[in-house]
């Protein structure tokens, strides 16, 4: 894709701070550096989001995540944990429409980043949860 910023990084048309590259993926520091070491793992094949992955691409990309995450963690003894996340679609805060996985090192509870999942368990009956499960199972591909 000609106007994709990540495709341009992959093709060395734009500078980046690559930490890993192989025939299928590239990993580079996110310009925003939410926390030091914040890295993006990007498939070289242009896919917009997780919904465009086939099983082979998913296996390829996600198999690299632990290796890269361990290297980031070992690079700084102050890293206490890591968020691994992917935003898919505008509603989920995706801003670059070339799939990418964020590896976000966490140092303290006071890092300038938070995810808060509220407890909404009291809003659903057992029947409603069963209906959600049935609907999803009905759409599972063989």
UniProtKB/TrEMBL annotation:
Pfam families for this protein: HIT
Gene3D superfamilies, A to Z: HIT-like
Extent of the signal sequence: none
Protein name per UniProt: HIT family protein
Phylogenetic placement of the source organism: Bacteria, Bacillati, Bacillota, Bacilli, Lactobacillales
Lineage top rank: taxon: Bacteria
Keywords of the record: Methyltransferase, Transferase
EC number: 2.1.1.-
Record domain HIT: where: 5-115
């Amino acid at each position: 894709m000609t106007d994709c910023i990540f495709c341009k990084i992959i093709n060395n048309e734009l500078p980046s701070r690559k930490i890993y590259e192989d025939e299928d993926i590239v990993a580079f520091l996110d310009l925003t550096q939410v926390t030091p070491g914040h890295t993006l793992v990007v498939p070289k094949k242009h896919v917009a989001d997780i919904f465009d992955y086939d099983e082979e691409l998913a296996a390829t990309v996600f198999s690299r995540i632990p290796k890269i995450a361990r290297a980031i963690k070992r690079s700084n003894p102050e890293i206490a944990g890591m968020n691994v996340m992917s935003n898919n679609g505008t509603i989920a805060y995706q801003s670059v429409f070339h799939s990418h996985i964020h590896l976000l090192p966490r140092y303290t509870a006071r890092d300038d980043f938070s995810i808060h999942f509220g407890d909404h368990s009291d809003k659903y009956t057992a029947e409603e949860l069963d209906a959600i499960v049935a609907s999803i199972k009905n759409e599972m591909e063989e």
